[in-house]
Specification:
The complex is a heterodimer. By secondary structure, chain A is of the alpha+beta class. Helix content of chain A is 48%, strand content 26%. Chain A has 2 domains: 2-62; 65-146, PH-domain like, CATH 2.30.29.30. Chain A contains 4 helices and 7 strands; from the N terminus they run βααββββαββα. In chain A, strand 3 (72-77) and strand 4 (82-88) form a beta hairpin. The radius of gyration of chain A is 19 Å and the shape is elongated. Chain A starts with a strand and ends in a 7-residue tail after the last helix. Chain B is an alpha+beta fold. Among the domains of chain B are: 1-64, no CATH class; 212-292, no CATH class; 390-536, PH-domain like (Roll), CATH 2.30.29. Helices cover 42% and strands 22% of the residues of chain B. Chain B contains 15 helices and 19 strands. In chain B, the strands form 4 sheets. A 7-stranded antiparallel sheet of chain B has the order 6-5-4-10-9-8-7. A 6-stranded antiparallel sheet of chain B has the order 13-12-11-16-15-14, with helices on both faces. Chain B has a 3-stranded antiparallel sheet with strand order 1-2-3. In chain B, helix 2 runs antiparallel to helix 3, helix 6 runs antiparallel to helix 9 and helix 8 (237-248) crosses helix 9 (262-292). The chains are: A alpha+beta, B alpha+beta. The interface between A and B is medium-sized, with 25 and 35 residues. Strand 4 (82-88) of chain A pairs antiparallel with strand 17 of chain B.
């Protein structure tokens, strides 16, 4: 099983920081215009949110794994709900590599695998180096073409 | 390239006219208050101009809208300023629907929509063509879709064999045999790759008789009815309130909303609730009746074709090879009288809110529906396995928590209103054990030779038959609580369209080992089924299932 790049933790922590900042801003707004919120409480809530977020990011990194198996792409992920997904190569419709602004700063990419399914119609593998992402995209594409089924929807 | 029916020009002119007359209306109304040079007296003139502009746009839209049938694609070119031309390959078309409203039926017109698997709505909508043109299009597209598929399948030609089993192991030169005796279309063969366009005859598979229609209307509750009644209440609140007050007076309701004591208000509440339920139920019955009036399902070649509707007439076709899964639905009432319904799911989007689900048999005796499902999918009679007994305990805890929330809400309500004896709300706890038990006993799954059968739900129980070769992804999910109990849920995803009311088939709360086992089996059989299908070219579904 392959793990994600360790830097992905930074990405998730950055996302948490943004969320915590938004939460803080909302609380400040509430304090200003609605009901007074004690400063200690405000800082406490934001700090707890940030700590939870960081713990979540670290744990998620420990759990996240994926593997190219004989017939399918296999993924394990999830802190609250642990999900093991198999995406058979025959079912791959197309494969994207994507990166957002934070990901780009950290030098990371995501591979997004699309299927025709209705749920989890796109499976996202975050936290790959651009090289690894491109290689994975190529491999998946080859495997998908190789195992082409003719019952496409 | 063809144009729409000329009457569409009138429809589009009116539609865009009515849309555009508001633009100058609001502009002038807004500007008249702020800019001195603009007068409110201009309103009649500018709205008329807006309407004329819109109407002209509508007429141009009509002239710029073209569609045509080419050998490989169905083409639609539209747009006045920004042009869009779309080519839809026949083999990607999921279903073709024809819809006729009341006025359209009088005028002999229809709306044709073409669905593919992609996107969130119809791929192409031909708003208003004549009924005969609609039928011609439906027929032509169906024939061409079949033609493309016949071209593709030059490996083998066998269709479903006599006993309804896939025919992968039989020699390829065996004489193709059909399930029905009436072989109306010549079987495809290597020497004739493209089917001759013989006029395909339509064979009736199922018709909803009046007794079944009535039973179906009376036993089905539609969320849409609730929405409709809510909508009515929202727009005519005063009228509805007066009406409710008048209705409650014979039972001791208040004279009007302002004067009344606690008791008469109580009577008003109870009577209004009863009225609300009865009216919603009646709307639901009427809606179902009108929607499924004169339902007929037939087959043309390898396609299902259906027709239904009292005021608005729908007709559509579903290629059998596009069917992803088959679902039997029933609710407690229907189970009581031993009836059930059969639905087929495709990846397209149907005319209903139910997404790609189409009712194949809205209502029939449960035994018949089960037989239909078995004939349609070739699934053996399932022997359902129950989820882990721990699951029942889990539901007990879960529903107890919900009951606790209800009691807490009553307590909170008692703090802000003169409500007394909030603790009476604790009676909801009495419902917890039966609810948990009912949820548990209606869960079941069966790992068949070629199919996975998943049953779930009490109020709207669904038994879904998924052929292994239709599986898209499989996921084993375990929440924190499930991990503690050593159980898991298995989500089996197909390409059926997702909707609000049709969840993804899930085997809930089975032992982790069982879930992993089904996960492995599903993956393995998907591969072997695909290999087998590549050899045998079996559609996997028999069109003649009744």
């Amino acid at each position: 099983m392959e793990s994600l790049h360790p830097r992905i933790r930074l990405l998730w922590i950055a996302q948490t920081a943004i969320l915590a900042a938004v939460l803080g801003a909302v609380l400040v707004a509430v304090d200003r215009w609605l009901v007074p919120v004690p400063t200690a409480g405000l800082v406490g809530i934001v700090a707890v949110a940030a700590v939870l977020g960081i713990a979540y990011a670290v744990r998620l990194y420990q759990i996240w794994q994926f593997e190219l198996q004989g017939d399918a792409l296999y993924l394990e992920r999830g802190v609250i709900t642990f999900v093991e997904t198999a995406v058979p190569f025959v079912r791959v419709q197309h494969v994207d590599t994507q990166f957002g602004p934070i990901e780009r700063t950290l030098g990371l990419s995501s591979v997004v695998v699309y299927t025709a399914g209705s749920r989890n119609a796109d499976v996202r593998i975050p936290g790959l180096t651009p090289d690894r992402a491109r290689k994975l995209q190529d491999t998946l594409r080859e495997l998908a073409v190789e195992s082409e089924a003719d019952d496409a929807v | 390239m063809n144009r729409l029916h000329p009457f569409s020009a009138v429809v589009y002119a009116l539609r865009y006219g009515l849309l555009w007359l508001w633009v100058p209306f609001f502009l002038v109304t807004a500007l008249a208050g702020t800019v001195a040079a603009v007068s409110i007296a201009w309103l009649p003139v500018v709205t008329a101009l807006g309407f004329l502009f819109g109407a002209a746009y509508g007429v141009v839209y009509y002239y710029r809208f073209e569609y045509g049938i080419t050998p490989d694609t169905f083409d639609v070119a539209s747009g006045v300023v920004a042009r869009r031309s779309r080519e839809i390959p026949y083999r990607r078309i999921q279903n073709v629907d024809v819809r006729q409203g009341v006025l359209q039926r009088v005028l002999g017109l229809a709306v044709v929509t073409i669905e593919t698997a992609g996107g969130g709505n119809s791929e192409a909508a031909l708003r208003l063509v004549s009924k005969s043109e609609a039928d011609r299009l439906q027929h032509q597209i169906r024939r061409r879709t079949a033609g493309v598929d016949a071209d593709d399948s030059d490996r083998s030609t066998t269709e479903a064999s006599e006993d309804g089993r896939p025919v992968g192991d039989e020699p390829l030169d065996e004489q193709p045999s059909r399930v029905d005796g009436t072989a109306e279309a010549p079987p495809v063969s290597e020497t004739r790759p493209r089917r001759e366009p013989t006029e395909p005859s339509r064979k009736r598979l199922f018709a909803l008789d009046s007794r079944e229609l009535l039973l179906y209307s009376l036993t089905t509750l539609r969320p849409a009815a609730l929405a409709a009644v809510g909508f009515l209440f929202f727009f005519a609140t005063d009228t509805v309130l007066d009406f409710l007050v008048t209705l409650s007076q014979p039972f001791g309701g208040p004279q009007d909303l302002q004067t009344g004591d606690t008791q008469s208000y109580g009577v008003l509440t109870v009577v209004s609730m009863v009225n609300g339920i009865v009216i919603t139920y009646l709307v639901s019955v009427a809606y179902t009746f009108a929607t499924y009036y004169d339902f007929r399902l037939g087959r043309v070649d390898e396609d299902f074709v259906y027709e239904r509707g009292l005021l608005q007439r729908y007709s559509g076709s579903i290629p059998a090879e596009k069917v992803q899964s088959v679902t039997i639905t029933d609710n407690p009432l229907q189970r009581l009288i031993d009836y059930a319904g059969l639905w087929v799911e495709t990846a397209g989007y149907g005319p209903d809110s139910s997404g790609g689900s189409q009712s194949a048999v809205p209502m029939a005796r449960a035994a018949h529906v089960h037989r239909f499902a078995e004939n349609l999918t070739h699934v053996e009679t399932p022997a359902f396995a129950s989820p882990s007994p721990i699951a029942r305990r889990r539901y007990l805890v879960r529903y107890s928590l919900i009951a606790a929330v209800v009691v807490a809400a009553a307590l909170a309500l008692a703090q802000v209103t003169p409500l007394e004896r909030w603790y009476l709300a604790a009676v909801v706890f009495a419902a917890v054990p039966p609810a948990a038990h009912l949820r548990y006993v209606h869960l079941g799954y069966y790992v068949g030779e070629d199919h996975l059968v998943i049953r779930r739900g009490f109020w709207r129980r669904r038994t879904t038959v998924i052929p292994y070769f239709r599986i898209q992804t499989v996921s084993t999910r375990r929440s924190i609580f499930q991990r503690r109990l050593g159980i898991a849920s298995l989500v089996v995803d197909t390409a059926s369209s997702r909707t609000l009311f049709w969840d993804t088939p899930t085997i809930y709360d089975v032992d982790l080992e069982d879930a992993r086992g089904v996960h492995r089996t599903g993956r393995k059989r998907l591969q072997s089924a695909l290999r087998e299908r590549a050899r045998a070219d079996d559609a996997g579904f028999s069109v003649d299932f009744t």
